[in-house]
Structures are given as C-alpha cells and as structure tokens.
Amino acid sequence: MDMKHNTCLREAKMKTNPEKRSCRRHSYTVPIVFSYFNNEHFIEAQTLNHSADGMCFKSSFSVNPGATLYIRVIKFYSNGSFNGGCGMLRSVTLAEVKWCCEILNLNEPFYQIGVKYHRLEY
To answer: What ranges in the chain are assigned the alpha helix state H?
Structure first.
C-alpha cells in the first residue's frame, strides 16, 4: 500500500470523527498558485476552505505530505466572507502539507490537499 493511499484512508477516517480544529473552517473559493518552497515553478489551484490554522485546496497535481509550500492568492472576491478572526485567509504564506488525496471525478480527476500554515514569528 503506497503513502498516498494511506493518507487517503487516514483522511476518510478523520471525516467520521468529530471536528477537533481550534478554529472554524470557512468555505471560500478563490484561485491560488503554489510551489514547493524555493522552486520557481508555480501550479494553479483553487481553495475549498480555510481557517486561521490552514486551508484545503484542490489541484490537478499531487504534493508530498510533509513538504513546505509557498502559496499565494491570485484574486480575492468581495463577497463579505472576510470578517477577521478564524475566517482570515492569508494572501501569501508558507504551509506544510498534512495530507494529499486523489479525488476520482468522471470529468476531471484532481487532488485535494490539506495544509497547515507555518507559524509567523516577527
């Protein structure tokens, strides 16, 4: 059994357990680009949800759990979903990939990716 399959099984089990996140997730779809940290090749993706701790997004490319990604929002939409607190989506951030799961879709298969933001220290 490969790591990607194990990660998908772990994610499926998490969905049956009660929510343990400290901040509420907000559904918000915006275009983003990401790359492995210190890599100039950017990949287009789209957010699915986010919180103060991290985000979930979809991409046509898989990424390795444990990798550090540079993520940048391409365009914000003014639909009133930004009210601060746990709802704040970072416009530019570094994040660690926690899981990556292939979603088999008849039209176009894609990967759903969960990341945790790196802590900002000033």
So the answer is: 3-16
- Please tell me which residue, 66 or 1, carries the higher pLDDT value: 66
Q: Give the domain range for residue 105.
A: 3-12+25-116
Asked if the structure places residue 37 within a domain, the reply is: yes
24, 53 in Cβ contact below 8 A? no
pLDDT digits (tens, 9 = 90+) for 37-57: 888 899 999 999 999 889 999
Q: Classify residue 18: in a domain, yes or no.
A: no
| CA 112, chain centre distance (Å) | 7
Distance CA 18, CA 48 (A): 20
Count the residues in the chain: 122
Could you write out the DSSP letters of every residue in 66-93? T-EEEEEES----SS---SGGGPPPSEE
The CATH number that applies at residue 73 is: 2.40.10.220
pLDDT digits (tens, 9 = 90+) for 72-90: 999 766 654 444 433 578 8
More confident residue, 94 or 8: 94
